[in-house]
Amino acid sequence: MKVIAFNRTLQGSGASRRLRTAGQTPGIIYGGAEAPALIQLDGNALYHALKKEAFHGSILDLEIDGKTQPVLLRDFQMHAYKQLVLHADFQRVDANSKLHKKIALHFVNAESSPAVKLHGATVSHVLESLDVSCLATDLPEFITVDLSTIDVGHSIHVNDLVLPKGVTAITHGKNPTVATAAVPAGHVSAEAAATDAPAAPAAKPAKGKK
Fold first, then answer.
1. Quick count: other Cβ atoms within 10 Å of Cβ 38?
2. Which end of the chain is more exposed for a tag (fewer CB within 10 A), N or C?
3. What does R_g of the chain's alpha carbons equal in angstroms?
């Protein structure tokens, strides 16, 4: 995704307030061999870009004065009740160095799992994102979690995930739970309903004609 920014010379709370009044959002770029640089971005365009998942988990092409550099969105601050981005932080990306990034999880195939099809279970998403380490060129937009094999009483853990090539989960030696399946209280599964259903009464023999 491409992001247009402009160099910012003034800093401080007063200057930032004036920028926001003019529809601009103050920001900063840091990392790499260069010194941190103050920037400003179109506030409305940034607000709508933040609604897109790819903006949070992808390498962004940040253009300043006609020059483009790869960056990652690292942080942003929103107004408490207004549709207003107060500040945005971007980090320069080095293609040869590994980076750490939180990536969104996409859950698929829950409806075809034994837990849902046979038992009417509810699949709960314990994690919504995962910290990963990889090169910038290997950074995925999201990670898919296949729920097709989950059954009641079972869970899917980070070690069960199929991660994209070059991507490593950061778990600090643990194996966190990603999703679980459980039957809601009072719910009867399709199998139990079929087992407990009363047998149909036998048909009475037909009476002969007099």
1. 16
2. C
3. 27
